[in-house]
Amino acid sequence: MSILAELKSRLSGPLGKLVEDPAELLEMVRPSQDPKFGDYQANFAMPLGKQLGRPPRDVAAEIVAGLDVGDLCEPPEIAGPGFINLRVKDDRLVDRLAEAAVDPRLGVPEVESPRRFVIDFSAPNVAKPMHVGHIRSTVIGDALCRLFRFLGHEVTSDNHIGDWGTQFGMILYGYRNFRDPSAYDAAPVAELARLYRLVRQLMDYHEGKAQLPQLGERLEQREAALADQLAAAGDTPDKKTAKALRKAENDLTESRKEIEQLEAKLAAVEADPVLSKMAIEHAGIGEAVLAETAKLHAGDAENRRLWEEFLPHCLDEINRVYGRLNVTFDHTLGESFYQDRLAATVDDLIKRGIATTSDGAICVFLEGQNVPMLIRKQDGAFLYATTDLATLGYRMETFQPDAILYVVDHRQAMHFEHLFATARLMGMEGVRLEHVSFGTVLGGDGRPFKTRSGDTVGLEGLLDEAVRRAATIVAENDDAKPKGAELSAEERAAIAERVGIAALKYADLSQNRTSDYVFSYDKMLAMNGNTATYMQYAYARVRSIFAKGDVDVEALRAAPPAIDLSTPAERALGLAILRFGEALDLAALDYRPNQLTAYLFDLAACYSTFFEQCPVLKAPTDALRQSRLLLCDLTARVIRKGLELLGIEVVERM
Ligand code: ARG
């Protein structure tokens, strides 16, 4: 058990005498911000005093009187209005560090009651290139799999790919009309990607043409609205009016930009003789693509055969990206896998009175929801929600999970609310269903990250650019070494790949997952600050001590020396090392990998202070040198393990 968990369990005794359920109050036991206030601080006496109508200091005193922590802590102190400050005995820290030193799990126990998780993440729609939006789901989902597994839970990861949607209608149409047979034979993945992009471009062209008049109208309306508002506002508009004016101005700029981008796209097609000819010849491409998709869904033999031929190529493509990201799945059961269950799913819901017919469509009406969940359209087509219901049924039968986590964009919040509410109507009470949602990746302008021409940013391009920039940093670093460069060109390239990808992953994982964040190569690769580069560098620096001192680290671990925590920096580092398990618990509690990155960053800071203040290789005595080396080794092992749980690899040298 972590020290924090131990303290909570001890405190629950005396707290339980004052309140029925101390769980919520126990959340208020936290690491102290300042060593002045001990190592941990309990702040619950204030709300509790209020609740009981007693002075908080009295309440704190009563709790402390009934608290049995003499073996673990120095005598508790009551400070200010009623804070309880707890300082762990140095001996206990030393014991725990000695245990961690010989434990491959670094002193983090497995949970007592493991739960079975299904984690649904990444889930791109295949047959089109992966884009920036897939980073978050992929890296957060992978980190959660690693974290829950390490904590001792049973995890089944499932990549619920979109392998049955319109994008297949698009490549079917592209294949029939624009295929270059020799290119397809030589490199099918690349040719399919080309066909997807071409069809996308032609569809966008016709959709854009059709949209342009509407956008023009909206622009005029906005211009008129702004003019009216300006006239009404007069010379000195009040705050509210000024704000409304700013909004109207922004809307107008937005409209102009939208039209400009669209016109540029249309012009690009028209300026290209081959493309413009294609666009004219394939004016009905939008409907034709839908028809191809419908034929596939209806079981058309030829479309089905082609789909079967394309799918492995699409999987090769995403697997290449997963390979670079070091992400794996237990299952890849895509939407197509559930196709023959959809009709039965709908029938079952009708039979049980959960779904009803409305205007020829089948819907589930849910309490407190404005719109129903549509599960079959008038024309008989099934929807995204239908597939998710069938998937849920399959997962319950097959994996019998205690919890299913859906790591999906926050824009799908309503979909999941509907899905979970329907699941409850179906009687799935035992399983915890969670939408682990996340915010949007933004560009430097604070809007969703797009290329200059307004297109989505491809994921591979991001990886390549991060690696390219990492290569520069690795080279500069190596060239600046006191005795000259140490790394060969191959070593540099391998390190750059790790550093670049790590930077991208860590930049994402270190954000509060529910917020949007601004994508920045410079920030993510910074050597200082809460970045993977900094953490990898910290790790490599600790490791370099062992190389420099020619220390046999295996021997050190096999017979750990006595640990000395006499100076504040040593003690703070020791305590930080022991908090690893607490950070993992916190990250698991609300599915937030950023709790782990924040912890690692703190640990690295404690290490820096320690390193400045406590000579290691030149320690005054041999015993102290051994003790400090062990603290170094534990720091490195925790960083390495922590990064591993985030799906990030360390480098031994940088
Ligand atoms: N393919 C979907 C998309 O790109 C995400 C699927 C998420 N998982 C799920 N079970 N709905 O939006």
Task: Please characterize this protein's 3D structure.
This protein is of the alpha/beta class and 654 residues long. The strands form 4 sheets. Strands 1-2-4-3 form a 4-stranded antiparallel sheet, with helices on one face. Helix 17 packs across helix 18 (489-509), helix 23 runs antiparallel to helix 24 and helix 24 runs antiparallel to helix 25. Among the domains are: 3-88, Arginyl tRNA synthetase N-terminal domain (Gyrase A, domain 2, 2-Layer Sandwich); 116-164 and 309-442, HUPs (Rossmann fold), CATH 3.40.50; 167-300. The chain contains 25 helices and 13 strands. The mean pLDDT is 94. The longest helix has 46 residues, at 188-233. 59% of the residues lie in helices and 8% in strands. The chain is globular, with a radius of gyration of 30 Å. Residues 120, 123, 125, 160, 162, 388, 391, 406, 408 line the site of arginine.
Gist of the model:
The protein is built from 25 helices and 13 strands.
Topology overview:
Elements: H1 3-16, H2 23-26, E1 29-31, E2 40-42, H3 45-52, H4 56-65, E3 77-79, E4 83-86, H5 90-101, E5 116-120, H6 133-150, E6 154-158, H7 166-178, H8 181-186, H9 188-233, H10 239-271, H11 273-281, H12 285-298, H13 301-325, H14 342-351, E7 356-358, E8 361-364, E9 373-376, H15 384-399, E10 403-409, H16 413-425, E11 432-438, E12 441-442, H17 459-479, H18 489-509, E13 517-518, H19 521-524, H20 532-548, H21 553-558, H22 568-578, H23 580-589, H24 594-613, H25 622-645
Parallel strand pairs: 5-6, 5-10, 10-11, 12-13
Antiparallel strand pairs: 1-2, 2-4, 3-4, 7-8, 8-9
Helix pairs in contact: 3-4, 5-22, 7-9, 7-12, 9-10, 12-13, 15-16, 17-18, 20-25, 22-24, 22-25, 23-24, 24-25
Bound molecules: arginine.
